[in-house]
Amino acid sequence: ALERAARILHAIESLQLQHIDSKHPRRIVSVSAGVASVVPDPARPSSGLVVLADEQLYAAKAAGRGVVRGR
User: Fold this and answer.
1) How many angstroms separate the Cα of 14 from the Cα of each of 1, 17, 22, 40?
2) How far apart are alpha carbons 28 and 11 in whole angstroms?
3) Which candidate, 59, 57, 66, places its Cα nearest to that of 29?
4) Is the dihedral of CA 36, 41, 47, 52 positive or negative?
5) What is the CB-side half-sphere exposure of residue 23 using CA atoms within 13 A?
6) Model's pTM, two decimal places?
7) Tens digits of per-residue pLDDT, 4-26?
């Protein structure tokens, strides 16, 4: 999943889509991604997976533009 997310980020960056309202000097669209996976367990709610992915997304955003984080 991490490799797939990294390929998606690279593909988006290679498009060089302009983002004229961006405060970043390059003014192109960038993406950060949070990836998580778990072993399915009927005793655990699936919402926990969303929470883990969200945590990783915020870690990616804190690390900078165009970053993938996962666990």
Assistant:
1) 20, 8, 17, 35
2) 13
3) 66
4) negative
5) 0
6) 0.81
7) 999 999 999 999 999 888 777 77
